[in-house]
Amino acid sequence: MKSKEKEGPHAISGQVSPESATHYAAQCALVLCPFRHNFPVFTIYHNEHGIKFIINDSCRQLIIQRITRVPQQPSPTVAKAPDHPADMDDCIFTVYVRTGSAIKGGTDSIVSLRLYDANGWYVEIPNLEAWGGIMEPGHNYYERGNLDIFSGRAPCLTAPACALNLTSDGSGDNHGWYCNYVEVTTTGPHVPCAQQLFTVEQWLATDISPFELTAIRNSCSYGVDRLSHAVMKSSASSSM
């Protein structure tokens, strides 16, 4: 790991405003590590490669060395509601995905995610890894037993996420995937830090029950049938 540069609210590759980076870290320090036992030592700083996160032993010595730039990908979207303020456009989403330990439970497929709010809006991330994969360089995502972490900027929802559509495209040599859970934290300017756990416990595969490549989990006040009528928001850029 390269030497640490000055800490503080620095601009981060044009993705997070200078005054926001440290604010986000402080606001979400407790929820960014779902397995904490004590308040974590959480620092955020940058070098020429992007952001570095360091979390102490209370978060199982999670060290994410950097967020590297990735080629531009189709982005998450949400069209603005008429009363949706301009300064609410940019939120930071952090997504934790736990792959099960079942034999052949890992996948090489592309995984996409939709998050819905209680007001019928959703944000879509067409490729989680390309959008916000922040594990170490060379890391294989969605392998058996992995806890993979993704973080990036996307349009703010109008309320905390309460439903999820998790989809595998079924590509690659090993298309079958067993997902234990997805946990999402969000924050942004004037937006309280929110956290939602979606228990999945399902195969996303065409050759194992339930023979589906999509898992939908809904804790919103409306039924699953209404999800198909939700409104997508405007496009957000790929992660750093």
UniProtKB/TrEMBL annotation:
Signal peptide (residue range): none
Ranges where the PLAT domain occurs: 91-218
InterPro entries linked to this entry: PLAT/LH2_dom, PLAT/LH2_dom_sf
Lineage top rank: taxon: Eukaryota
Pfam families attached to this UniProt entry: PLAT
Listed name of the protein: PLAT domain-containing protein 2
Name of the gene this protein is made from: PLAT2_1
